[in-house]
Amino acid sequence: MKALLKIFIPVLLVAFGMMILATTMNRSEGYSGGNTLTIYNWGDYIDPALIKKFEKESGIKVIYQTFDSNEAMMTKIEQGGTTFDIAVPSDYAINKMKDENLLIPLDHTKLPNEKYLDKRFMNLSFDENNEYSMPYFWGTLGIIYNKKMFPDKNFDHWDSLWDKDLENQILLIDGAREVMGLGLNSLGYSLNDTNEKHLEEALLKLKKMTPNVKAIVGDEIKLLMADNEAGVAVTFSGEASEMLSENADLDYVIPKEGSNLWFDNMVIPKTAKNVDGAHQFINFMLKPENAAINAEYVGYATPNKAAIKLLPKEISQDKRFYPDMNELDNLEVYDNLGKRMLSHYNELFLEFKMYRK
């Protein structure tokens, strides 16, 4: 009997240890519940101090994980092996997730701070009546350029990117919707256009820009523009704001023909384990004081009308990042084009990239 116990007890200890390890790994992979909240967000998209503040106020432990694209985020949630309580997808992704039954409807009685949000950014086409999402940040797609390198040029129009003086000077964001969209906008078409003739016309025009394109990149745009390694880039407003703080010679404009108006909203995925905690966190982030802290840290525009009043005037009165209402009229939110058309956009964008080589 003693011999059996000597064998059995170590086995139990090992099994217990493996159970603890599995639990820890599950939590690190996003499994949550009770006093744990797992958040899935873009990288460097929240002030870390706010996470600590929420943990202190709520008694809930936050596990924070990041993604680098809406598609990667949706795939992981759709697979269901990893549980997240909060995610922060973009507009068209919210619409897609809603259609695929990946979201839990919000309980608005638990979100009293939504009263502080700007009505312009509520009840939009991708989520009518904000049934599934609450605004987090918003912004535009535009052109950032070096005023010292190009003192006599303005970039108020997309066609400026085809100027022969810009040879090997332009950095393009590595995104099919963004690049195909600017090509379409430059021709007077919608960036959600699905007309094959218009798409081919946009691709042909983009190919004529290739002598000016230095690189098609992602986050590297910030460093390259800040260090004067390129003179012009197509990028998002929040990224541009960060670059401007690093290099006073830079400026940002939204082309007059139109561009993308984007939104990132907070949602609760269907596999969430801590739905009540998720509502607590969303309401916490909608508090004007917290929204202002976050906007100042991240650099993107807050949709929180009350929070804007708490921001330094050099931020809140900067029309490049908080444009007037009439300047938003010709901007478009990306529609959910469906898998087939999105794949076609990606194929056209790939053809453009291959043409450069």
Automatic annotation (TrEMBL):
This is ABC transporter substrate-binding protein. It comes from the Bacteria. Pfam families: SBP_bac_8. The chain crosses the membrane at residues 7-25. GO terms for molecular function: polyamine binding. The keyword Transmembrane applies. It is found in: Periplasm. Keywords: Membrane, Periplasm, Signal, Transmembrane, Transmembrane helix, Transport. GO terms for biological process: polyamine transport. Its main location: periplasm. The keyword Signal applies.
